[in-house]
Amino acid sequence: MKKILVLGSCGQIGTELVLTLREKFGSENVVAADLKDACPENLSNGPYIQLDALNKESVRSYIIDQKFSDVYLLAALLSATAEKNPDFAWKLNMESLFIILDLAKEGHISKIFWPSSIAVFGPTTPRIKTPQYTVMEPSTVYGISKQAGERWCEYYFNKFGVDVRSIRYPGLISYKSLPGGGTTDYAVDIYYKAKAGEHFTCFLKEDTALPMMFMDDAIRATIELMEAPKEQVKIRSSYNLSALSFTPKQIFETIKKIIPSFSIEYQPDFRQAIADSWPASIDDSYARENWGWKESYDLDKTTMEMLNNL
Ligand code: NAD
Ligand code: SER
């Protein structure tokens, strides 16, 4: 019987992941955990616990006591927030991972999901159709923490047989919960402004292409990877995953087809340098070949979903 813990459950991914896992495996079998003291309304259909991913003692005793089979570790500082607090970003992103990896090494968890990011790549990486295996010299603290995390995941798999699985998510677009401080957040904010009939000021230049994905695709990919037979999961660092690639100008034009009065201006800030260091598009052929990944949302379909549901 599966018993699942989602640690960092109240954020952009966690909210939708918990709801989908509960539909699939039963609400009582999926515990949401986060720093937040109260369970958000949208996760109140199942168990919730306040848990600090950095409190080693509490995390260990709770996981050992509750006998979780699968742990999804989502607590982290994202790229833009991490640049403002690099010491703490490194601490949170790395220490939380070691606590969970060690629990699995000791046999208290069967399977771990830990997300990586396109931020593992850097300015010396080929930007178009970035391959799975290529130059990786990340220039942000977030990217450095994700790259180090990937190395440790693979190490724990090779040395200790820890069943850890990971995806290098692109920027994620969703309407059920807000993004938490990333460089790709503009691609969610733009829909809120369009829907509210307001002018949008974009913090990236109009021609900055980045890899993106609608949240439903990201959640499906995550669960498909976690449910794939062990022998199909051939990469234990993290899988490239791709769906969309677009610029602020392209997303604006897609929205403008539906809301002709929508207007935009571009005022790049410190996040422009982060975006410039990341890939424009991703080659995810290993995910497609190994465990059958295929996206179902293009930019037009994503835009319809966002504008219809916000
Ligand atoms: P988010 O910022 O929206 O959510 C993170 C959640 O973790 C928040 O609810 C926060 O309260 C919680 N949290 C923070 N510190 C905690 C702690 N010490 N203990 C317990 N909970 C804590 O982030 P997200 O977008 O949902 O991202 C989740 C994971 O996916 C992160 O590892 C992130 O790096 C990765 N990722 C996200 C994206 C994206 O576009 N959203 C892209 C690539 C990778
Ligand atoms: N969406 C994330 C960010 O911008 C990518 O990891 O930080």
Walk me through this protein's architecture:
Belongs to the NAD(P)-dependent epimerase/dehydratase family. It holds the Pfam family Epimerase. Residues 4-234 form the NAD-dependent epimerase/dehydratase domain. By secondary structure, the chain is α/β, with parallel strands linked by helices. The chain folds into 2 domains: 4-169 and 214-224, NAD(P)-binding Rossmann-like Domain (Rossmann fold, 3-Layer(aba) Sandwich); 171-212 and 242-309, UDP-galactose 4-epimerase, domain 1 (Alpha-Beta Complex), CATH 3.90.25.10. It has helices at residues 12-25, 56-66, 79-84, 86-105, 141-160, 186-196, 215-227, 248-258, 271-276, 285-291, 299-309; strands spanning 4-7, 30-34, 48-50, 70-73, 111-113, 116-117, 164-165, 167-169, 171-173, 200-202, 210-214, 239-240, 244-246, 264-266. The strands form 4 sheets. Strands 3-2-1-4-5-7 form a 6-stranded parallel beta sheet, sandwiched between helices. Strand 1, helix 1 and strand 2 form a beta-alpha-beta unit. Helix 1 (12-25) crosses helix 7 (215-227), helix 2 (56-66) runs parallel beside helix 4 (86-105) and helix 4 (86-105) runs parallel beside helix 5. The longest helix is centred in the N-terminal third of the chain and has 20 residues, at 86-105. It is globular, with a radius of gyration of 19 Å. The model has no long low-confidence stretch (mean pLDDT 97). The structure holds nicotinamide-adenine-dinucleotide and serine. The site of serine has 10 residues, from loops. Residues 7-8, 10-14, 34-36, 51-54, 74-76, 78, 92, 115, 117, 169, 171-172, 179-182, 184 line the site of nicotinamide-adenine-dinucleotide (NAD).
